């Protein structure tokens, strides 16, 4: 995932309304009107949120006769999760090294230490 794609994903996820839209889409595709129903905002405002989500690749819009169903896409979320997992593993490894060093320091010098 390119840095620009990752930025777009996190920008899209930064807004609580967009996260709520994705949560609603987790149960299946919906129209813009269905998505707008629980929010105290206009359909054009919801459409702006959808454009941000669409730009990030988090949703796609189809055509089904008169309807334009919106579907959630998992690939950008998987890529962002993978990116975060890489950092979690690196940080955990760093903390494990620090814990080992602290344990060694607390144990004091051993007979193998050249200082003794």
Structure description:
This protein has 116 residues and is mainly alpha-helical. The protein has one domain: Orthogonal Bundle (Arc Repressor Mutant, subunit A), CATH 1.10.10. Helices cover 62% and strands 5% of the residues. The protein has five helices and two strands; from the N terminus they run H-H-H-H-E-E-H. It has a two-stranded antiparallel sheet with strand order 1-2.
Give the topology.
Blueprint: H1 3-13, H2 16-25, H3 32-36, H4 43-55, E1 59-61, E2 70-72, H5 75-107
Antiparallel strand pairs: 1-2
Helix pairs in contact: 1-4, 1-5
Observed structural traits:
single chain, 116 residues, mainly alpha, Arc Repressor Mutant, subunit A, two-stranded antiparallel sheet, 62% helix
> Can you give the helix content as a percent range?
55-70%
**How many DSSP E strands?**
2
Residue share in β-strands: 5-15%
pLDDT below 50 for ≥5 consecutive residues: which ranges? none
Could you provide a short overview of the structure?
This protein is mostly helical and 116 residues long. It has helices spanning 3-13, 16-25, 32-36, 43-55, 75-107; strands spanning 59-61, 70-72. The mean pLDDT is 90.
